[in-house]
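Good day; I would like, with your permission, to put a structural problem before you. What I wish to show you is a protein chain and, alongside it, a tokenised description of its three-dimensional fold. Thank you for your consideration; the sequence and its tokens are set out here:
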Amino acid sequence: MAPGAAGIARFTVVEFIAVVAGSIIGLLATALVGWLFQDIPFGTVAASAGYYVLALVTVALFSALYAYLPGTPATLASLAVGILLPTVIVRFSFDAPQPLGTLLLLHVVFALVALSVYRFVHAGGLPGTQPTRP
């Protein structure tokens, strides 16, 4: 394997780990905040496959945004996507009984935790080895 191919392989592995870790930890933090402050059963959120798929798709969109945008716009766009996309999908697709304000609050927590974990994994896993963007 050429050094360039090894760097791309490492980037792909770290990207996968960052997306999975960000989505799982963000979802568990959201379930914990909902359980502590909003009287939402922890298992309702933490044990639902639909919420995990939604979290994975949302954090994968963070990855796409960071691939195509510079740092600050990617962060702001990721926060907006992390708040609005899950709120709309949970509100209309999962038919959540919580009011819109509660859903927005929970997804603010999700977006902050998931984005923080995603960036933390990247900072520790790729010290200057990211391939150049086309």
Remarks:
- The chain has a mean pLDDT of 86.
- The chain has one domain: 3-28+42-125.
